[in-house]
Design goal:
Blueprint lengths: L2 H12 L3 E7 L5 H14 L4 E4 L10 H12 L4 H12 L7 E5 L1 H7 L1 H11 L3 E4 L8 H9 L3 E2 L2 E2 L8 H5 L6 E4 L12 H12 L6 E4 L5 H10 L2 E4 L1 H10 L10 H17 L4
Parallel strand pairs: 1-2, 1-9, 2-3, 3-4, 4-5, 6-7, 7-8, 8-9
Helix pairs in contact: 2-12, 4-6, 6-7, 10-12, 11-12
């Protein structure tokens, strides 16, 4: 059983949903992002998403775009991001790690080599935002050969006819994009989630995570009532960004501010009985 499947199975027996925080690799520097990564499980993260910085992140709003640019300026590359995960695994063998990013860097790296190196580093799953289902075979074989889950995105605009095609070959969990738009811009209503998640659930047995637009503990709890997991990204990046000095350098309390926010969001998710 993969780490992702094992974690969701464990949480199901505990009667609660999962909290999945996001961080951008190397934002604003290696030391700060590493400290945040290592502190997340203790603050309540059940799974962790790590963004792979890229120059053209088409699904991301200004917050994560800027975080990616800070990461690139600090020296982030795909191999260095994998080294971050490998270092994390020397301290934590259990928390699932998902890499989230775009096709171009993986294409340049090579699918077979990337999947082999990612698995060796301790990565459990991949979210490739701009990889359409029709072209997923390019990555699916290499991912399967290295026991990496490919986590598919389902949008509010994904209709019932297309859902099976989008979910074909999906594993780990399904990522429901709760808004039609870019990250960090607005939030889905409880009414929308109450209607949308059962529709997705009828098409898959996989756990469903809700992401895009969740910013507060109250919103996280609302999403946890509807689905199996909650992803928060832009709100955490905003907290980190607000702590940086005018030159973009981390402050002494930058890491703690983010981890305190992770703790509050995780507690909100855990307060919802499933």
């Amino acid at each position: 059983m993969s780490r992702i499947a094992a974690r969701f199975s464990k949480l199901k027996t505990e009667g609660r949903g999962a909290f999945i925080p996001f961080l951008e690799a190397y934002d604003p520097d290696l030391a700060t992002s590493t400290a945040i990564l290592h502190g997340m499980p203790g603050a309540g993260a059940d799974l962790i998403e790590i963004g792979m910085p890229f120059t053209d992140p088409m699904a991301d709003g200004p917050t994560i775009q800027t975080a990616g640019l800070r990461g690139l300026k600090a020296g982030a590359t795909l191999p260095k991001t994998l080294t971050m995960v490998s270092d994390f695994r020397t301290h934590d063998a259990d928390t699932p790690v998902i890499l989230m990013g775009y096709l171009n860097p993986i294409l340049s790296y090579g699918a077979d080599k990337f999947c082999a190196d990612a698995a060796k580093a301790g990565v459990d799953g991949l979210i490739v935002v701009d990889l359409p289902s029709e072209e997923a075979d390019w990555l699916a074989g290499a991912a399967a050969a290295n026991a990496l889950d490919i986590i598919r995105l389902v949008a509010p605009t994904t209709d019932d006819a297309r859902l099976p095609q989008v979910l074909n070959g999906s594993s780990g969990f399904v990522y429901y994009v709760s808004i039609a738009g870019i990250t960090g811009t607005r939030t889905a209503t409880a009414e929308h989630l109450a209607a949308a998640i059962p529709r997705v659930r009828r098409a898959t047995d996989l756990p469903i995570a809700i992401g895009f637009g969740i910013r507060t503990p109250a919103q996280a709890a609302e999403a946890a009532r509807a689905a199996d997991a909650v992803v928060v990204a832009s709100a955490l990046i905003d907290t980190l960004a607000a702590s940086l000095d005018p030159e973009g350098r981390a402050a002494a309390n930058s890491v703690q501010l983010v981890l305190d926010q992770v703790r509050g969001l995780a507690e909100a998710v855990r307060s919802v009985a499933k």
